[in-house]
Amino acid sequence: MSNILNQFFSSVFTKENSEVPEVAVDDEDHGVYDITITRDIIKSRIDKLKEGKAPGDDGLTPIFLKNVAEEISESLAMIFNRSLDDGIVPQDWKMANVTPVLKRGSRHDPGNYRPVSLTSHIGKLLESLIRD
User: Fold this and answer.
1) pTM, 2 dp
2) Domain of 43?
3) Residue 79: inside a domain, yes or no?
4) Is the pLDDT of residue 10 over 70?
5) For 27-45, b where at least 16 C-beta lie within 10 A, e where not — what string?
6) Which of 10, 43, 65, 129 has minimal Cβ neighbours within 10 Å of its Cβ?
7) How far apart are CA 65 and CA 55, in angstroms?
8) Is the pLDDT of residue 64 over 70?
9) What pLDDT, on a 0 to 100 scale, did the predictor assign at position 122?
10) What's the number of domains the chain is made of?
């Protein structure tokens, strides 16, 4: 069943282009370089995580992150700021567990499923901080 769904999902979606596009940088516009992430910001964001969410490829659940927020927030701040400074996102944060969810209809038709990507909550934390 997993092979059938994998073949179907692969045939429907396009492969991401891994080439980094050239971007003209204006001296006035520093983009993500103006972002500084602090441990307090991370702790606050971890507190807002929904506890019922499934873990990503790293196996870390929101409940676990909430329980260790005090201990990990300083280290995460250093990692996040380094990631922004270097312009590199750790590969582990890009990994996902893809779970098929039945939309409707026959369970035997792969076209009746939609893929849901379960990604790292830590990676999503960084994404949300950049977005906001």
Assistant:
1) 0.72
2) 31-89+120-131
3) yes
4) yes
5) eeeeeeeebebebebbbeb
6) 10
7) 11
8) yes
9) 94
10) 1
**Which positions ≥6 away from 40 have C-beta within 8 Å?**
73
Please state, in angstroms and rounded to a whole number, the distance separating the CA atoms of residues 118 and 58: 10
Q: How far apart are CA 71 and CA 109, in angstroms?
A: 46
> Taking phi first (over 0 means left), then psi (-120 to 50 degrees means alpha), and beta for anything else, what does residue 14 get?
beta
Tokens of 121: 């909550």
Domain assignment present for residue 114? The answer is: no
Q: Residue 4's Cα: distance from chain center in Å? A: 26
Is residue 98 in a domain? no
What sign does the CA torsion over 97, 86, 33, 31 have?
Answer: negative
Q: What is the DSSP letter of 19?
A: P
Task: Using alpha carbons, list the distances in angstroms from residue 73 to 4, 13, 41.
Answer: 41, 36, 9
Triad 117, 123, 124: Cα angle to 5°: 70
